[in-house]
Amino acid sequence: MSRVTEMAEAHLLNVQREIQNLNERKVQIDQEIENLTSYLNDGARELQEAQSNAEAEQAQAPETPLSDTDHVTTFTE
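Predicted structure:
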């Protein structure tokens, strides 16, 4: 076998190994994307629940008037 053929075979073997490494990284990246997506969805759901609960509590709070000499301002506790 000629030296050029041996070099070509070695090069193709390196390319094959790099493809295998990239495929392994792809699996890891896909898993990380899945984990982060789940984390994002869970966090968004928890935030929405907290906002809904806060709005419900605010809606149930009695209004207490505050007054000064010019106008009356109300707020919820």
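Summary: Strands lie at 63-67, 72-76.
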